[in-house]
């Protein structure tokens, strides 16, 4: 949920001054405080992360899990002026390691996975969806733990996300940016 202070627009420089024990994001200059994730959320994240991690060993791309700062510049602004600090994307795959610095990644990742909860559903499905589409994230997954489904959005030639491919716990997802990688959803949702 956004904080209620009156400053017009917050930036990465402001973010660096906030208490370390608090989880914040800034989207279009508006700060949002993040709640601690549930154990189900953490289990799903770990299960997905593990499959990607094993695949990416020895390859040029790398995977990161929250907490991890994703700073998305939109107007060639300096790091400190960036007004999009998505500090808690659940899982991020990046392939340009030259943009790793300070507390995370400064650029547009290839793939982002968000695991929604009741408190983050609106932000993940609307605000972040629109932001990720606008800046050109190639692949965006929204994982819904209660329904045990994953919606995968792929950036089309018109730089818009097409209709999602929706997968259940019985499916495998072929990752578009790594066509030889299939994420098995059965172990992802086991015990949830």
Top CATH class: Alpha Beta
| The CATH superfamily title | tt1808, chain A
Biggest sheet: strands side by side, in what order? 3-6-9-10-11-12
User: Could you tell me the number of beta strands?
Assistant: 14
Task: Sketch the major β-sheet.
Answer: 6 strands, mixed
Strand content: 25-35%
How many helices does DSSP assign? 4
Q: Rg, please?
A: 16 Å
Q: Please state the second-level CATH architecture.
A: Alpha-Beta Complex
Number of domains: 1
Name the average pLDDT: 89
Structural class: alpha+beta
The level of helicity is 10-25%
- List SSEs in N-to-C order: HEEHEEEEEEEHEEEEEH
Low-confidence stretches: none
Distance, first to last CA: 26 Å
Shape: globular
InterPro entries: Nuclease_put_TT1808, Restrct_endonuc-II-like, Uma2
Pfam family, one: Uma2
Organism: Desulfosporosinus youngiae DSM 17734
Domain Putative restriction endonuclease: 13-185
């Amino acid at each position: 949920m956004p904080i209620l202070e009156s400053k017009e627009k917050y930036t990465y420089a402001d973010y660096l001054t906030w208490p370390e024990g608090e989880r914040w994001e800034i989207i279009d200059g508006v700060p949002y405080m993040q709640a601690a994730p549930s154990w189900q959320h953490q289990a799903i994240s770990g299960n997905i992360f593990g499959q990607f991690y094993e695949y990416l060993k020895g390859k040029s791309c790398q995977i990161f899990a929250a907490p991890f700062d994703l700073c998305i510049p939109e107007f060639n602004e300096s790091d400190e002026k960036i007004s999009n600090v998505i500090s808690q994307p659940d899982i991020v795959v990046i392939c340009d390691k030259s943009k790793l610095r300070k507390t995370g990644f400064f650029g547009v990742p290839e793939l982002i996975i968000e695991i929604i909860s009741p408190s983050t559903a609106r932000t993940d499905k609307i605000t972040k969806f629109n932001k990720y589409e606008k800046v050109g994230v190639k692949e965006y997954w929204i994982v819904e733990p209660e329904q045990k489904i994953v919606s995968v959005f792929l950036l089309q030639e018109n730089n818009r996300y097409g209709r999602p491919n929706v997968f259940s716990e019985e499916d495998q997802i072929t990752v578009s940016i790594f066509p030889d990688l299939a994420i098995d959803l059965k172990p992802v949702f086991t015990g949830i």
